[in-house]
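The following record pairs a protein chain with its ligand, zinc ion.
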Amino acid sequence: MSETLFALVVALGLAVTMAAPAQEQKKPFDPVPENERNLYRFDFKKNFYADDAAWQADMAKARSQVEAIQGFKGRLLESPATLLKALEARRESEDLLIKLYAYGEFTSAVDTKNRKYMDAYETLRAEADARESFFAVELRSLDAAKLEAMVKREPKLSSYRFVLEAAVREAPHVLSEKEESLLAELGPALSSWEPALFQLTFDRTAFPKIEASGAERSLHLDYSTLMKDPDRSVREKAFREYYKQLGELSDLAGFSLVKEMQANNEVSKLHGFPTYYHEALFDAYLSRGELDNLYGQIEAELPLYHQYLDMKMDRAAKSLGIGRAEIWDMDMPAKGVPELRFTAGEGCREGLAACKVLGDEYSRELGKLLDPKNGRLDIVGGPNRGQGAFCEGNFAYFMDNYQGYLDDVATLVHESGHAIHHQLVLNHRGSLYFSEGPAYMTESFATFNEWLLRDHLMKTLKDEGARRAVRSQSLDEMMVLWEIARRAKFEMVSYDRVAAGEITGAGGFDKACEDTGLKYDPFFARYPEMKVQWMRKHHYWDVPGYYFNYVLAHILALTYYQRYLDDPAGFPKKYIAMVSQGFDRPAEELLKDFLGIDLKDPKVLQGVFAMMKRQMADVRADGAAAK
Ligand SMILES: [Zn+2]
């Protein structure tokens, strides 16, 4: 998740490229100057394999490791020593597999036609998963007392305590081996056709074209461009037509979603959960009680969100010179806001400077990642490149096409945050295996870096207009909370209602969307057609039960930021200790033990809301001063 909205910057004598007034237009901004382009490419030889023979040697090694793990089948729990050996063998195997995975991902990202290494990895991964499934089955007979006794006899097992405790925790929800393998076989037939049908529903629909700024635009593919068109009537038409079109597709979309939720609920019931959503929370070490506690606090502060929307609408109306802004006016870029651009070198330097507060080790590792001479960055656009931006493990950073916008720099620090998290765990615990944890935790680490970047820019930019732009965009980013909370809540409510038989098709989803929408967002009352908005998030089909991770990650990153502002010297040390520790206990306990954050505390978000209110007051004052 790297949605960031701001624009920005310069500091410390770096060249700032702001949209200059027309009369003094300079040469066009070049995000990666011609003579530096070759620097921003991966050096696979240096960071991965000197040649194919070296890669093949690792593939062969990984295969023999998987083979050797087979030797533990049927005797995993025969003694603490055997269990330790088996776990260490698996950890070593996973460390090599992640390197082979990263190699496959990065080689295919820089050349989408080159699937050789990724395909080979995927085959190997499937083999490993199939051959190691006995771990889950044999660990089922472990219980808390047996586990304690084993750790007592073999203290080195304590490194794997969390993995073993997870098995104990899951045991009551695991069926017999025969039943589980039956469910695994049926899995694709039960729940892989629904996302495919949803996609097909869109693919075979000829969305109307709209004339805008002298070009034909697709209502579907170009919707966000249309919503920024200078012609207000084009924007309104795009909005009305788009929702009308979604309404026409909702029967099929509703059919596929209800079938997917029913199938998921049924399988979860077999595993002893009331709904699939409960199981998803359990897997993330969260409970419905914790989520309800957070939602209670988020909803109690809805007036703050509504004040923010009012302010945005006021500003949009003034900026457009109209009496009242409508929803199709809200995405128009504000007038007179400088657009800051950073070359790749500047972006890396700003990111590094922003994260300096995280301490020497963090800075050192981030510096190595972001130093283009090390060949761990590949960010220059071109033909046959993959999409988006990502890191794998601690290895490297890929971005399809760095353009130098503040969003791009935010993405850079976000993704680097993933890589350095893995690196710190490797440094401290000797293996990447211990850095795998719930998505909301790893995403919160990455997202916190975005806040450090915005904070750094707000404090170091020389130009007041630029600082104002960052302040305003920071506020927008904070306020995203209510939007993602509404979307996540729609899914939770829907799983409950599908389980209760209250949702049987599109009409039920419209109602759930409207109920959550009316509570959160005044636009739902003004534009009843928005009730089909649930069709705009493919996540409900593609990654069911995942959306709440965005809410948690957002809340946690903001909480770290607020605590950092309150205690700039003390907080980073505690935070980095937590990140470096890896996942050796449930996320909830990590947060409590290292940072004193208690997700069950009915006031846990108080500091965050106070920070948001200060931000809102600052942005209001900026607006008044700008008049
Ligand atoms: Zn991320």
